[in-house]
Structures are given as C-alpha cells and as structure tokens.
Amino acid sequence: MSDVYSEILAYVGMASILLAFLLETRDALSSKGFIYLLLMAIGSGLLAIRAFLISEWAFFILEIVWCGAAVIALISTKKVDNQPSY
Fold this sequence. Notes:
Layout: H1 3-25, H2 34-53, H3 57-81
Helix pairs in contact: 1-2, 2-3
C-alpha cells in the first residue's frame, strides 16, 4: 500500500473517532448508541491497519482493543434491540 493511501487511512480513522467523541461530548450521540460505536469501530479498525502497516506495535494493540470493545458493544446492543418487549 502506498504512503498516500496509508495516510488517507489514518486521517479517515482519526476523523471517525474524533467525530464520535465530539458528537458524544455535545450530547448529540450516546456513547452506547449504534452510530457512536460504529464510528469508533470503523475509526479504530482503520487506525489499527495503519499501525500495522507502519509497524507501530503498541499503537496497533491499542487500536485492536478499542475496535474489539466497540464491536463487542455493537453486538451486545444488537442483541438487546432484538429482544422481544413484553
């Protein structure tokens, strides 16, 4: 992957995470909401790929954990949404 694409990957990932954080701090999104978690999963996933490409292992591990936490929360949110209401 060329350096330009790698940089674009990093900026899109960073923008995704920052957008989620900005919207959450302005009470426009909940940190447990679908959009917030999706933005965090996408952003941290892209940054994990970038960290892997440039061999930044500590950053790679950090982003993998962030992405994993967001994906697990998304799955948990989906399960709660699919529960029948009585």
